[in-house]
Amino acid sequence: MEKAIEVKSLKKSFRDTEVLKGVDFEVEKGSILALLGSNGAGKTTVVNILSTLLAPDGGSASVCGFDVITQPEKVRENISLTGQFAAVDGILTGRENLIFIAKLRGIKNFAQTAEDMLKRFGLSDAANKRVGNYSGGMVRRLDIAMSLVGSPAVIFLDEPTTGLDPEGRLEVWKTVKDLANSGVTILLTTQYLEEAEQLADRIAILHSGNIIANGTLEELQKLFPPAKVEYIEKQPTLEDIFLSIIGKKEEK
Amino acid sequence: MKNTTGVLFGRLMKHILRSPDTIITVALMPIAMMLMFVYVFGGAVKLSLAGNVNYVNYQLPGILLMAVASGIAYTAMRLFMDSQQGLFARFHSMPIKRSSVLWSHVLTSLISNMLTIVIIFIIALVMGFRSSAGILAWLAVSGILVLFTLALTWVAVIPGITGKTMEGATGFSYPLIFLPFLSSAFVPTETMPKVIRVFAENQPVTSIVDSIRSLLNSEPVGNDIFIALAWCAGIIIIAYIFAMRAYKRRI
Questions:
Q1: B94: contact with A, CB 8 A cutoff
Q2: Which of A57, A219, B83, B174 is buried most deeply by CB count within 10 Å?
Q3: Do residues B107 and B11 lie in contact, with contact meaning Cβ atoms separated by under 8 Å?
Q4: Whole-prediction pTM value?
Q5: What residues in B contact A81, CB-CB < 8 Å?
């Protein structure tokens, strides 16, 4: 398989703190890798290096075959970053945000591009509302839509659901799953185990500066003793209850 | 690499048109000052000026500089917001010229400040401002105001990028707003005590104010205009170097 992202013994320190101590991983073209780790594990640092915002201290990293240090321009032409904080313009409307990014990317047919994205992400009704009035889930969807303008081959999603309510999270999950089917490569960082389980083809666990495990969910499960069969009473989680009550309300 | 300053500038101009307070609020304080100086202090100040001086004309240049000094606080604010919202990260991971992000802010600052200045000129006209200056003198006045705005804009870029809080990013403008008081902008410097007078006569606002005042009154400008231009150019160069350095570090 072709590799869309290759990272070899990547090192980065901030002052005296060694954040990445030699990180290695690869992402196959068209797949989703979840980089799992607790707060401060260095996930964002990895993403920032891969998206050419930050220079590593050692090691190498390439995206679509282009080195992030020596060919940053080529890398930028192939990637899109959806950072931890939604990078949308709250004063502009949803449509204007998309047109703005399309123009920045030099797309001639910017109006049509924006229209397609609005439809694809279910934002057509809110297209002419200022983004400052959007809900958290809508902002994230617009944020991801803006990242997809210009069809980048590789997408970095840095904690895309942090700070979202359960509904917003489900919206984003659905969006990411749809994306995966369209053939783009996604590097997703998250601190939620469930999110990695739901979305990723492979999961890499970043802990104190190193990748301590990397594999598919099945492979990771095999690292543990075989499952014991136990009978437990399955209570609905508060999330199940919350979502089903809201669902009923909306049906009325 | 595409140069996208135009697209980025268009976005920021939408911000200004949608929150016109950035122009109106900025104009209000200097206008209030102008009313106060002309109608409250003006009568007293006139006693220490030559008999035929039009005090609206006299104090207008200082008011204009004050407006620019408060207008650039918004430049710092817009930069601060962009860096906080993650928009910088988005732009910098795109195949566009990184410096165009900064230039779009500088251009926006220039345009919005010029709009404020036009508003103040109109109010001053109503209050009795009259000028005998010809086209060339007006062009020179515009040029000085543009250079002064650029100089303060590049100064504003530094806290806009490095500020950790909104207050930190915009607070630097207060001392700048008060600089015209310690200059020849509202009263002749001859009336000030020695220490303040030395400061007033050697700080940039005095030479800029004197140049604009002479140009608008069709009087000879003398050396003032060269001192004024040197101040503006010097501030632009130094602030630009520090702003660019801060910007590179921020990336």
A1: yes
A2: B83
A3: no
A4: 0.85
A5: 89-90, 93
